[in-house]
From TrEMBL:
Residues 490-511 are annotated as: Disordered. The keyword Coiled coil applies. GO terms for molecular function: acyltransferase activity. Residues 176-502 form the Malonyl-CoA:ACP transacylase (MAT) domain. Keywords: Coiled coil. This is Malonyl-CoA:ACP transacylase (MAT) domain-containing protein. Residues 44-103 form a coiled coil. PANTHER family: MALONYL-COA ACP TRANSACYLASE, ACP-BINDING, MALONYL-COA:ACP TRANSACYLASE (MAT) DOMAIN-CONTAINING PROTEIN. It holds the Pfam family Acyl_transf_1.
């Protein structure tokens, strides 16, 4: 065979034509070979797959959003329907006479009797519903079935039954009355549906010279700038109006839960709340308590105006540390513990310069959690109230002969217990000394719990005492109810998620 010449043209006839087909053996390509990103077909396929995945994710998110929006709309409509229903029921109840309301209660009692009858007749229904509602039977099975049957029967009649254990149904009830820091411009609005509360308002209008719901009017340019609630920052007006709201709140409890008042064995007040507590305990009548709180507010207002004063709330420090800081900040002024609200929760009052020094040192103290200056607060429960103490004592002493022994136990905020039926000879002195002595609320609650009180109702606006109760005893906090005194609806349910009012810088003096 001739040698191959690379310069020859393949088209030349002299080149032998190759007709034999060469077979090349191709092996299988491994499946796990990496995809070639530079191949056009591969790139297009990957892009299309990514687009499909993105579109699927978008459609899934869109469906989830639509489902959530539909659920939110349904929940909103249900809440609105319930609100409208409660509003209609409240308006209908407000139009009824006391006799008609009693008839309504008798109807509910009949419903309860029918439900109790269902306990014996409908255990099978409860058995059927048990799996559906996943009831956890912590009590005897037969009793749990009976309760479930009664709840089902009552629900079909439009009534909700609140079962209580024998211990819960018989434990002593205590009423709690807050101090001036729980004030609110609308604290009497939700009580006007009650005839007795309206009578209190009319009586207060005659004795005070202004409507407790509307206030004394604009007192000056400064009050005009502060808005419609500015008059409540004056202790002389706020204290008697707060007293009216507290006593009227008891009437709401009497109307909505009369059984609770039948089991009431004790009352306690925080500072100003002592006067409403003594009224409910029968020591004096409503008018006497109103005059006492009016004079108390006027005397304290005058004492506050003598020198610049302030109060600060401190949390997280021990009482020994707080007392040491107050001693260091006194110098030639006054700085003292004014209220012992809960463990490591105090209010300190005194002259403005001493309180400013206390705030600075407390913030730099190890373990301090909160330091809050209370807005427009005077040095209540300190020696700066000595002048007010003397005049208040003379007033209380003047009608001591008309005072009666308390019909239930009274726990004064100074930490003293006045047992039911005991002598009230020392009461004027205790109430007068309260102006210049600390309010030991934590001691009062601890003694009430030790004496067996197991259910508490806060009679007044906001939920100051319920929030403080959470820091004293968690179990007692769950058994505390703050009465709603704002709306016309009956919404007497716990609301312990808010922080205590004393730590929010609320206006008014600590009384």
């Amino acid at each position: 065979m001739d040698a191959w010449d690379p310069f020859l043209d393949p088209a030349d006839d002299g080149l032998p034509c190759v007709k034999e087909i060469v077979k090349v053996e191709v092996t299988d390509v491994p499946v796990d070979l990496p995809v070639d990103p530079w191949n056009d077909n591969t790139f297009v396929a990957l892009a299309q797959e990514a687009a499909r995945e993105a579109e699927e994710r978008y459609e899934a998110a869109l469906k989830a959003l639509e489902a959530q929006q539909a659920a939110d709309l349904e929940e909103k409509e249900a809440k609105e329907a319930r609100r409208q229903k409660l509003e209609r029921e409240a308006r209908e109840l407000a139009k009824l006479s006391p006799q008609e309301r009693r008839e309504k209660l008798l109807e509910r009692q009949a419903y309860a009797e029918m439900a109790l009858e269902a306990i014996a007749q409908s255990p099978a229904i409860a058995m059927q519903r048990k799996s559906k509602h996943h009831r956890d039977l912590e009590e005897p099975e037969e009793l749990a079935f009976g309760r479930a049957a009664a709840e089902i029967a009552a629900a079909e009649m439009g009534v909700k039954i609140n079962f209580k254990s024998k211990d819960e149904a018989t434990r002593p009830v205590a009423l709690l009355f807050p101090d001036q820091n729980s004030k609110s411009l609308k604290m009497l609005k939700g009580l006007q549906e009650l005839p007795e509360a309206r009578r209190f308002r009319e009586t207060a209008r005659e004795l005070l010279g202004f409507d407790p719901l509307d206030g004394p009017g604009v007192l000056g340019f400064y009050e005009l700038l502060r808005g419609p609630e500015g008059w409540l920052e004056h202790t002389q007006f706020c204290q008697p109006v707060m007293y009216v709201a507290q006593v009227a709140a008891v009437e709401k409890l009497r109307d909505k839960r009369p059984g609770a008042l039948q089991r009431c064995k004790a009352v306690a007040g925080l500072s100003l709340g002592d006067y409403a507590a003594l009224t409910f305990a029968g020591v004096w009548d409503f008018e006497t308590g109103l005059r006492a709180t009016q004079l108390r507010g006027e005397l304290m207002e005058a004492a506050i105006a003598t020198i610049p004063q302030a109060a600060v709330a401190v949390a997280g420090l021990t009482e020994e540390r707080i007392s040491q800081l107050c001693e260091e900040c006194r110098e030639s002024s006054i700085c003292e513990i004014a209220q012992r609200l809960f463990p490591q929760g105090y209010v300190c009052s005194g002259s403005l310069e001493a309180i400013e020094r206390l705030m600075d040192r407390a913030r730099r103290s190890q373990g301090c959690k909160q330091v809050q200056l209370l807005k427009l607060a005077g040095a209540c429960h300190t020696r700066l109230m000595a002048s007010a103490r003397e005049e208040l004592f003379e007033f209380l002493q003047s009608f001591k002969s008309h005072m009666r022994p308390p019909r239930i136990d009274v726990y004064l905020s100074c930490g003293t217990k006045v047992p039911a039926g005991s002598s009230i000879d020392s009461l004027p002195e205790l109430l007068a000394d309260q102006l210049r002595s600390p309010a030991n609320w934590v001691d009062s609650i601890a003694q009430m719990l030790q004496d067996g009180c197991g259910e508490f109702y806060e009679c007044g606006p906001l939920n100051q005492l319920k929030c403080i109760m959470k820091r004293i005893d968690a179990k007692a906090h769950k058994a505390t109810v703050s009465l709603d005194v704002y709306s016309e609806e009956s919404q007497m349910k716990p609301s312990g998620s808010l922080p205590p009012r004393w730590a929010e810088g609320s206006a008014g003096c600590l009384s």
